[in-house]
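Project standup — Tuesday

K.O.: blocked on the structure for the chain from last sprint. Re-posting the sequence here as requested.
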Amino acid sequence: MPPGNHAPAIGFDTLPAPKEEQGLWDKVMVLSKISRIKLERAREFRKKGAYREAEEELREALEEQPDEPDLKLGLAILYLKQKRYPDAMALAEEVLLDFPSDSQALYVLGEVAFHENRFDAAIGYFKKGYQVDPRPFLKLRIAKTLSKMGKNEEALEVLENELLRDPRNIFYLKEKAVVLNRLGRAGEALAIYKELRELRPHDPFVRKEAIRLAGLEKMTQETIRELEVAINMPSYENDPQLRALLAQKLKEQGSLEAAAHHFLKAFELEPFNPYFVKQAGFCYYKMNNLDEAAMALAQALRLDPDDFYVTSTLDKIHTMRGSLEEYLALIEDILSQHPGKKRLMGKVRSLRKSLEKAQATRG
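H.V.: unblocked you, prediction finished:
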């Protein structure tokens, strides 16, 4: 059987939770009639939580077709669900000996690494699996792993990119809310949980988090009122940190326009601090005010040319605006002020290449 031509392994197209796994690898099966029947029985047993019976069916099928990767991977995923990680890993590695790029086997190894806290390895397996079979579920696993590693900003970027393509994806939204909460952006997380309560009214986790964060929001409102009083007092009106704290609380609440206003006020008071103008730019970006976002983030990049998050956001903004020439001019100008910055040099090369390709297409 050629690599990748596998039926959905047990657990991927049958389990009620998580549904993001369902249909992950819908391939054509090459199984005997008996193996097909036993695989279906194993799935039914798996749905009921009857792991021992499911394993018996799969093992009997493997006696007839010992080299069939679908059956091996079905058993591997069954082992994952039982936390039998060494057994799952052994079966996945057997499949990879014959099919080195098999996406299901890579997924299994990624899950084993994730549960053993080997997060760098897990990311590698999930990314390689995604290159072979670019399914959204693997992007979700990448985001979850990044968040586990404490790389919540990177996880958020992965999720937001996917939500641009699928804005009502329940699983992306749920994970984004979790990540936002870890970043201390409770107001934004609450807004997502409110949306999710409409999409999944009976989800107990969503209901619990919505209630919990609503309680925190009340406390945030009180803090905002106190800060608004403070910044209007003569002794605090020129305090950029207090102004930024108010902006952050407004941002957490989801009041992005007001937050951007106060971040920029803080920047006026401390014009060499890139954090303030960067946060204003991110607020504008979330409001889809791309022009204001581009201007604010350009200022932030001039002050801190090594900021990866600013650069990656500017990439998206200028691509959406169709203003790559303007972006190239900005990067070239910053590079002239900071010669030798390798990331900026690479960005100039990639932008020139993109512009040349676009020009050739038009020509």
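K.O.: great, moving the ticket to review. The chain has a mean pLDDT of 85. The CA atoms of residues 22 and 166 lie 17 Å apart.
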